Amino acid sequence: MRIIEIDVRSALQNSGLRELDYSLNPYLGCMHRCLYCYAMDMTKDERAADDWGSTIIVKRNILDVLRRELPHKKRGTVGISTITDPYQPIEFRYRLTRRSMEMLLRDGFRISIQTKSPLVARDLDLFARYPEMVDVGITITTANPEKARAIETQSPSPEARRRALSMLTDAGIRTWIFYGPIIRGFNDGDVDIEGIAEMASATGSRIIFDAFTRYPRAAKLMSAAGIRPLPADMESMVPRIREICNRHKVECHSEDEDYLSEKARINRTLF
User: What gap in Å lies between CA 196 and CA 138, rounded to an integer?
Assistant: First the structure.
């Protein structure tokens, strides 16, 4: 593992995702080394992008930069993170995710976290102080541990992620499972959907689902591992996902639908 520390000029970036106002990425690269990850094609530092999973860039001055930026930023929702996992193992050492969120929440920003790591449960004490300002999503591409290991090569197991979701919901934090990317012929069967729905039901989480999008670096890694990099046929899948979710009494949305649902919830009026 190669760790490179750099200085940056900005911390909060305007997000290209309509459900987020800003993104904050304390690191570049990701130790989880998921073969399908779009982030390797979005990461501008070639050292991390070309050595995916083995080279991590640490933004060592991000806390100082964020502290200077906050007084000049309009309050909004910050995605933690969008091109890296904010709770990958390096967070044990640097704690940049934790310390960034402390500043954001104290200054009135909402945060939406997405991770594959049970390390997120370490920060329950912080989330519990701001329960209306935090939601946590954990990606579970498949509940099958062997399939998960094949494509999420250095990630925590699906069961470890499920346990983290349970801890979060038990503490009163809103949680969701990101079922995606859905890859044709890999994790698009009824057994796969059932496994995700059962985890969502057991942990009180909603499901957000989305198809795989093909990017060059990810497609190359997947092909080398013998996995065809094809998006799922969502036209046939969506009715099956809805039927299985309904049977398990689980709320589920496509990414587009979830944006509308969450926007209405956050901006709800009293009357």
Answer: 11
